[in-house]
Recover the amino acids of this structure.
């Protein structure tokens, strides 16, 4: 064998020896990678189904079935017998084994539901409480008693009365320091409370508790038309209705009076009319409307007079002869601007200043108006107003210049001036300056006399500082009028010289309102946009969209906002964030119905044998037997589930096929859990409010019932339209893109949420007060410093008096002594739908 | 309404003469300016009542009337509404009243000017018959307005010709076709009178026909195949075509109302408490309405904004009711 022949053989030999080693190393690396990516390829996250329950119906089961059938078929007479049977069986079981069927309360419910009389029904419910009811069931029965319309209405009326008197007493007590009174210093307290009572008398509002009570009384009448208490209730309804009408009418009258003050007469007439319709007996509405009608009538008379022409005899004798003005009139009638100008100039002789000259100058203004030179026309009118020898022409020019309809720029400028004035007034006087000062200073002045001046001045300085801060950060004075007038001007005179300034003002106003897109648009329209300003606004606009997207719970809306950022503001910083968020949204793990691990652990029924049947080891915290990551799971459809698994290499997501029946079982478990949670809070939340799992997709809550019947191809047009507009109506796709999480996960800030703290300003210093977390003895804390000394205080309910006399005491500690102020405990309206009772 | 207020305050002692340690006598004298000021304020308050308001001063001659008329008149009545004069009255109507009064008090004075101005006001108010009567009179008179009046007569006769075309009320499709023909005819006039006031008047007429077509579809949608879709299509075309119109925001509100009608009808056909009701389908329609209302509610300087805000609140109430009934 030659050397040349030996070489290939050697290579072959080497390959035969080394090949498997190198190949094995590569294979190991691949396996390692595969293991990292898919830690347990054969892993089945689902548990085995439990054995089917064995069911042997006994007498109790048979009787329960019979009771349900009798209830459904309204065979009311038999129900009493069933109740008796279960009560006896319970007694027997208790005697034998110390147990019970646990069904007596439910069967009793079936019987109680047939009682039409309210009193008897409530009595039956109270009686039911004496049975050994399941905890959840007990809550339901208690809720029924508590939620009775008449009981609630009466309770609300009592609360309202307590609040009314409590408020009055608190106004007195708020200025009473028991320690001071004991030392004989009560003049200041008396003055303070007198002023505050007077202030409170002005209010004509009807408390929401009374309005709720009214609605509940009416509901009671509807539900129990034959109740013996109804005549008395009707009287109460009448009284409350009258009060409500008065309050509503008064509100309308106040709006009307405000409109009258602003010379908005049609608006005022509308509100007076509304007040009269609400309460036909309202004297304020009647007299207000009467006065307004007189004014309107006067204005109408003036208008009619203005539409007439002065008789020839009364006209100025020196009026120009028709021949002189005929040509100018013809030019005016033809709207021929050039001709008007030519004829007008011909009429104005040099040095002539009489009525004819002024009239001709006015005609020149008309010509400029026809040419679209509005501002130049106004300039001429201003000159006419200075014409000494033409009072009539001067008056007409003044009327035009002061007309909001004609002088739009003037009314825009006026609106700007008003806005500035109101802003300054707000800074200096704030909201209801006089009232604040009266309430704050009366007592101090009475007790301290002129010496109290500096402390009142200091308090006012603080008020001014607060107002200034408010104006600088979020000006409460509305820009609406300025914007309306500005827009009106540029709509009518877009080409005028002043339009540039108006555009800029509008842009700034919109920026202040947070409407950045419009602000940018107006800056660009102004023709002199500052690049930096535009860039800043674009940045703000993009950030605003980003925030809106974050707040939106709707996935498609989020996508829309994020895409808008990329389309409109691709150069902004927010665009980078928007790109990332969009990418995250489109990932598969962010689709479907996601449930966090925490949520599942709080609701074990959902992943247990009656739910998804996931292995319990996924939740035991042991990474060695596979553990679910905090992200939890995502149901991607009827037959697919995505598990986010915690591995030594981080979170790995793995999709598993799912049996359709698992999906259905899960939905049932979810609805069942939702029901249990709702029942658990039935006695603590408002009647009619929604309980259960927050953000539960409505399609699941409704179950298959929400599914629309199959399309039968009807020719009905509306139905066709809706079908097309709404797209697919199958239930399951709607649960996609929802997240079920615990409250802490949904709102991480809530964990560290501080109780609300408010700052209040008294005559002598600053007070800070806040609510205390539930569970502590005190309700409220205060601390701060006043003219006397630093202080710290706690509002405490008195244990012995709690529930008996609604009085709390504010204990304040000061260097060297304590003070004690009593306070009536007021109830706040926590009912459902507060806006329906405002 | 604002009367001129002129407050004359008599000059008080110069500041340098002010004595800080004033005796009772001098204190009395320092009160004087305050009293004067008070008196001035009282007088000025009275003067607001007695000063005549300039906007209500009647015209003294024909020149005043014609100047006021032309100053406030606009050629483009398609984009802008008819202006109000300083008293707040529609300037066309106000001019007609003033000219009538002028004629009564000054018979046979400037008949051509009066007639021509009246005709212009009538045509802007779309009373073409009256406008024609006055233009014809002026055309028959001697003077420089005659030639223009004759031209205007020709234009208005073309208008009348289109308006007087008979429309069949028997067959909806013939009716629609007749409306389409009218739109085409108005388009011809728009092109013919481009740049003149008649272009804008023709646009106004064309817009009215377009609106009438949509209304016809809306009223008869149950007789038409896919009537609801046709209604939506009609409104979409109306708001697209007449984006420049003064009535644009009105159309947006009407379009929103149409969606609300569809939503209500859906709720009437599918009991919200029953199983056939699909909240998503209802909300789809409600959202479409909301989008249109919101567009108007965001526009500043238009009265429709108030209406849009109210409608949004109304729609919120309706949606809330349906949501509660259906859950």
């Amino acid at each position: 064998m030659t050397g040349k022949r030996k070489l290939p053989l050697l290579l072959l030999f080497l390959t035969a020896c080394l090949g498997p080693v190198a190949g094995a190393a590569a294979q190991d690396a691949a396996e390692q990678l595969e293991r990292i990516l898919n830690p347990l390829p054969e892993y089945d996250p689902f548990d085995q189904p439990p054995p089917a329950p064995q069911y042997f119906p006994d007498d109790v089961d048979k009787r329960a079935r019979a009771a349900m059938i009798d209830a459904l078929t309204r065979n009311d007479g038999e129900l009493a017998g069933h109740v008796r049977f279960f009560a006896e069986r319970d007694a027997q079981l208790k005697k034998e084994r110390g147990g019970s069927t646990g069904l007596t309360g439910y069967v009793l419910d079936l019987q109680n539901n047939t009682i039409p009389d309210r009193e008897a029904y409530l009595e039956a419910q109270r009686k039911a409480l004496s049975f050994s009811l399941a905890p959840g069931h007990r809550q339901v029965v208690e809720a029924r008693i508590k939620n009775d319309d008449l009981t609630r209405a009466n309770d609300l009326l009592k609360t309202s009365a307590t609040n009314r008197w409590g408020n009055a007493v608190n106004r007195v007590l708020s200025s009473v320091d028991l320690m001071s009174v004991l030392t004989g210093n009560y003049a200041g307290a008396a003055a303070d409370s007198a002023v505050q009572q007077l202030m409170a008398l002005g209010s004509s509002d009807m408390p929401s508790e009374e309005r709720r009570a009214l609605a509940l009384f009416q509901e009671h009448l509807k539900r129990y038309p034959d109740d013996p208490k109804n005549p008395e209730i009707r009287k109460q309804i009448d009284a409350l209705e009258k009060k409500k009408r008065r309050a509503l009418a008064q509100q309308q009258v106040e709006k009307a009076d405000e409109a009258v003050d602003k010379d908005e007469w049609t608006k005022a007439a509308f509100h007076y009319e509304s007040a009269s319709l609400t309460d036909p007996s309202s004297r304020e509405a009647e007299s207000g409307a009467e006065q307004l009608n007189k004014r309107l009538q006067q204005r109408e008379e003036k208008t009619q007079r203005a539409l007439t022409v002065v008789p020839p005899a009364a006209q100025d004798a020196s009026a120009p002869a028709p021949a002189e003005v005929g040509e100018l009139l013809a030019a005016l009638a033809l709207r021929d601007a050039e001709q008007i100008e030519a004829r007008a100039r011909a009429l104005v002789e040099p040095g002539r200043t009489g009525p004819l000259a002024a009239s001709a100058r006015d005609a020149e203004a008309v010509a400029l108006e026809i040419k679209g030179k509005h501002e130049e026309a106004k300039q001429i009118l201003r000159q006419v107003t200075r014409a000494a020898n033409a009072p009539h022409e001067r008056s007409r020019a003044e009327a035009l210049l002061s007309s909001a309809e004609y002088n739009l720029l003037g009314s825009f400028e006026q609106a700007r001036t008003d806005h500035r004035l109101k802003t300054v007034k707000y800074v200096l006087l704030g909201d209801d300056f006089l009232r604040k000062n009266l309430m704050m200073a009366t007592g101090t002045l009475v007790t301290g006399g002129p010496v109290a001046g500096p402390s009142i001045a200091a308090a006012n300085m603080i008020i001014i500082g607060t107002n200034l801060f408010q104006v600088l950060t979020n000006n409460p004075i509305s820009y609406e009028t300025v914007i309306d007038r500005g827009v009106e001007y540029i709509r009518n005179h877009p080409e005028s010289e002043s339009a540039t300034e108006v555009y800029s003002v509008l842009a700034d106003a919109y920026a202040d309102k947070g409407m950045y897109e419009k602000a940018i648009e107006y800056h660009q329209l102004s023709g002199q946009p500052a690049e930096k300003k535009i860039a800043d606004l674009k940045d703000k606009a993009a950030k605003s969209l980003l925030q809106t997207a974050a707040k939106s719970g709707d996935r498609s809306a989020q996508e829309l906002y994020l895409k808008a950022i990329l389309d409109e503001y691709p150069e902004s910083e927010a665009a980078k964030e928007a790109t990332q968020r969009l990418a995250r949204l489109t990932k598969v793990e962010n689709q479907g119905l996601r449930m966090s691990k925490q949520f599942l652990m709080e609701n074990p029924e959902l992943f247990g044998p009656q739910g998804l049947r996931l292995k319990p080891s996924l939740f035991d915290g042991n990474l060695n037997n596979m553990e679910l990551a905090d992200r939890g799971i995502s149901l991607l459809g009827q037959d697919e589930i995505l598990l986010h698994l915690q591995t030594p290499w981080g979170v790995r997501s793995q999709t598993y096929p799912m049996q359709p029946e698992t999906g259905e079982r899960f939905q049932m478990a979810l609805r069942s859990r939702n029901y249990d949670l709702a029942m658990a809070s039935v006695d603590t939340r408002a009647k009619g409010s929604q309980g259960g799992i927050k953000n539960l997709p409505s399609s699941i809550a409704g179950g298959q019932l929400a599914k629309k019947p199959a399309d039968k191809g009807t020719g009905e047009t509306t139905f066709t339209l809706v079908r097309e507009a709404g797209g697919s109506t199958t239930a399951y796709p709607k649960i996609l893109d929802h997240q079920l999480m615990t409250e802490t996960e949904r709102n991480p800030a809530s964990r560290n949420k501080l109780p609300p703290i408010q700052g209040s300003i008294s005559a002598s210093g600053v007070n800070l007060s806040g609510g205390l977390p539930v569970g502590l003895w005190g309700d409220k804390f205060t601390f701060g410093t006043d003219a006397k000394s630093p202080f710290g205080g706690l509002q405490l309910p008195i244990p012995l008096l709690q529930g008996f006399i609604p009085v709390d005491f504010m204990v304040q500690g000061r260097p060297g002594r304590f003070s004690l102020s009593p306070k009536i405990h007021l109830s706040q309206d926590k009912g459902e739908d507060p806006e329906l009772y405002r | 309404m604002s009367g001129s207020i002129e407050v004359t305050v008599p000059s008080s002692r110069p500041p340098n003469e002010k004595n800080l340690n004033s005796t009772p006598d001098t204190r009395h004298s320092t009160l004087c300016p305050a009293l004067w000021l008070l008196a001035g304020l009282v007088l000025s308050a009275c003067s607001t009542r007695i000063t005549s308001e300039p906007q209500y001063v009647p015209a003294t001659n024909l020149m005043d009337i014609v100047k006021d008329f032309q100053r406030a008149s606009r050629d483009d009545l398609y984009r802008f509404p008819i202006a109000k004069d300083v008293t707040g009255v529609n300037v066309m109507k106000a001019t007609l009243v003033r000219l009538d009064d002028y004629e009564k008090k000054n018979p046979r004075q400037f008949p051509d000017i009066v007639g021509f101005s009246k005709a212009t006001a009538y045509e802007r108010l779309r009373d073409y018959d009256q406008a024609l009567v006055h233009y014809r009179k002026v055309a028959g008179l001697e003077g420089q307005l005659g030639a223009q009046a004759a031209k205007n007569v020709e234009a208005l006769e073309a208008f009348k010709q289109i308006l007087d075309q008979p429309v069949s009320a028997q067959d909806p499709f013939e009716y629609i076709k007749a409306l389409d023909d009218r739109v085409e005819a108005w388009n011809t006039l728009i092109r013919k009178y481009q740049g003149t006031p008649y272009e804008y008047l023709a646009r106004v007429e064309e817009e009215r026909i377009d609106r009438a077509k949509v209304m016809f579809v809306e009223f008869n949608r149950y007789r038409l195949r896919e009537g609801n879709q046709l209604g939506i299509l009609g409104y979409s075309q109306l708001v697209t075509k007449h984006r420049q119109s003064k009535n644009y925001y009105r159309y947006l509100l009407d379009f929103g109302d149409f969606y609300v009608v569809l939503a209500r009808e859906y709720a009437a056909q599918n009991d919200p408490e029953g199983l056939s009701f699909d909240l998503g389908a209802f909300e789809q329609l409600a959202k479409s309405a909301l989008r249109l209302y919101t567009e108007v509610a965001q526009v500043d300087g238009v009265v429709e904004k108030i209406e849009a805000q109210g409608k949004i609140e109304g729609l919120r109430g309706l949606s809330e009711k349906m949501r509660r009934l259906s859950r």
User: Anything to note?
Assistant: Chain B touches chain A through 74 residues (CB under 8 Å). Residues 24-50 of chain B form the longest helix (27 residues). Residues 1-51 of chain B have pLDDT under 50 and may be disordered. The CA atoms of residues 112 and 141 of chain B lie 7 Å apart.
